[in-house]
Amino acid sequence: MTGGLLERATAWLEQDPDEETRAELRSLIEAAESGSADAESALAERFDSRLAFGTAGLRGELAAGPNRMNRVLVAQAARGLADWLVANRATPSIVIGYDGRKNSRVFAEDTAELMAGAGVRAVLLPRLLPTPVLAFAVRHLDASAGVMVTASHNPPRDNGYKVYLGDRDAGSQIVSPVDAEIAAAIDVVAAGSIADLPRSRDFEVADESVIDAYISRTARVAPTPPTAQPVVVYTAMHGVGWETASRVFEAAGFAAPVTVDAQLEPDPDFPTVSFPNPEEPGALDLSYATAREHSADLIIANDPDADRLAVAIPDASSDTGYRRLTGNEVGALLGWRAAESLTSPDEGAPEGTLACSIVSSPALAAVAEHYGLEFSDTLTGFKWVSRAPGLVFGYEEALGYLVNPETVRDKDGISAAVAFLDLAARLAAEGSSIAQHLERFSETFGHFASDQISVRVSDLGRIAATMTRLRDEPPNHVGGVRVERIEDLAGGFGALPPSDVLRFRLADGSRIMVRPSGTEPKLKVYIDVASTEGDLAHRVTEAESRLAALRAGVAELVGA
């Protein structure tokens, strides 16, 4: 083992306060010193690079070393963020939240102690809570910043560290150049030992009034008590959503949902799902079984930190008896609901902006045009969606929705659930359903169909090579349809900041987006088509046929 690698690993070991990761790292060092090539390779993978701090904060597997999530890395991040706050805010303050993943509370308390030790007023939320509550608390407590310890819907062995800004950022996630400035401050801290960093237990613990205020404000998303009560199944996906969501549902006047009991309480091992993401195959199987047992009209699922929402409705053609709606379908219906709520015969033209990420369906733009509202498409991520001027509703296709921007400036799976329950209850009172409402959407705005292809790679160079090839040798046709123009967002495009994204505009109005994933080793391709001619049956048939042809062409184009 090289001396430099051994020196870095030993220095890390000496400052690590966690007995579990200390034992793990000590074992690797001893094995590498005894000549184990596997142990040396494992050390090199952990110590030759570090988890990069960016606009998504930090996220990675729990283990020892700078390229993993652990108490040393979190301490470095906390002190670096504290130094940035002291340098950039006159009276720096921070509120800290955490979910039910392994070490979430430990990382949160470490952060509170280090913030207090650095002279930052630190407020720790009283217990494990959803991410939207932390985003709300940043504004509610008028804090300079917020930290949420969560890995959202990542695999069980992961954890993460999300950073929000208060003041004029109103509780939104950080964006460039702040991320780079904080990262530079973290690097300075990482040059020393966290054992030398001052800590203090002189931090505050928020009282229940913060959660009560969130519940009260979120319940108002449903403006009137429901006159019909659809049978609803709810799952928390082993996360922290249930306690808060159930109180919000009750405050809004909804009947208690049927719960998927095996997934209701927080469990960092996520025993009933291999991947705690409601988008993943099999993740909703227990929900489907529960819904069949109770003949449910609707399934509502939050991801583990409850910032995302999944919805499923009855579908006799499905083997499970239910169909999960896509993020674009839910986004379109909630966007339509938002637009309708702004329209009043006694007032003038509605005002406000509907916004979605550039990889989400063009359906929301059609809604905005129909109602005379502004429309904004943003880069991927709610750090961008939440900053759209005049925002009244925003979403991204990965199950993220922002329905009450005056309360929470981030995606919120609980407030979105309230909005969707309100829509379902209103439709039920009218003798209608979500499925019928989707058909009315297609009749009113056109039928929009979307698909996605993800190419997972073991060599990240393959992703860069594919993006370079598409730029240097762009296709003339995809799926038999002529490519009319290609918009390269690498240097920025219109009001959009630079991003490694290619947008293909096809002659029939279809759109293809290609980008590397920001969090996984994947190349992601998004395909969108729309049909506005003929009756509903014709629109659906035409759109689905064109979508299938484009999917085949895209798969060939990117080697899927």
From TrEMBL:
Q: Which UniProt keywords apply?
A: Isomerase, Magnesium, Metal-binding, Phosphoprotein
**What cofactor(s) does the depicted protein rely on?**
Mg(2+)
Residue ranges occupied by any Alpha-D-phosphohexomutase C-terminal domain in the UniProt entry: 483-533
Residues forming the Alpha-D-phosphohexomutase alpha/beta/alpha domain are: 51-187, 214-312, 327-439
What family does the entry list?
A: Belongs to the phosphohexose mutase family.
What is one process in the GO biological process aspect for this record? carbohydrate metabolic process
Recorded GO molecular functions are: magnesium ion binding; phosphopentomutase activity
Organism, scientific name = Labedella phragmitis
Q: Which SUPFAM superfamilies does the UniProt record give?
A: Phosphoglucomutase, C-terminal domain (SSF55957), Phosphoglucomutase, first 3 domains (SSF53738)
In its UniProt entry, what is this protein called?
Answer: Phospho-sugar mutase
InterPro entries the record matches: A-D-PHexomutase_a/b/a-I (IPR005844), A-D-PHexomutase_a/b/a-I/II/III (IPR016055), A-D-PHexomutase_a/b/a-II (IPR005845), A-D-PHexomutase_a/b/a-III (IPR005846), A-D-PHexomutase_C (IPR005843), A-D-PHexomutase_C_sf (IPR036900), A-D-PHexomutase_CS (IPR016066)
